Amino acid sequence: MKVVVADDSRVMRQIVIRTLRQAGYDWWDIEEAENGADALTKIRANEPDFVLSDWNMPEMTGIELLRSLRGEGNETPFAFVTSEGSDQMREMAEQAGALFLIAKPFTADTFRDTIDPLLA
Q1: What are the entry keywords (predicted)?
Q2: What confidence score (pLDDT) does residue 30 get?
């Protein structure tokens, strides 16, 4: 399964990837993107099966990335891993077509409990 993890923090991308591996997704082929614009380029070029994105990033935010993809007719499954998880943000994410929003800090169990039902 090809996955794009987008976050402007290299350290946070590595934490997300390590936690995904701890959650049992060590078979995923994960590509990193340093912001929404970089993610958009990589998604267009490589057609991943799933996108995990931060919300607040320079150049293009996560919600702008999601809206851009949906505006192009791209229905790649998309979710957020972000430091903010207000009800308003969750509603915006859902309305834009996100599968879920996981607020930081997170654990491997959080990923497993959220992602496993979607893969079944």
Answers
A1: Phosphoprotein
A2: 98
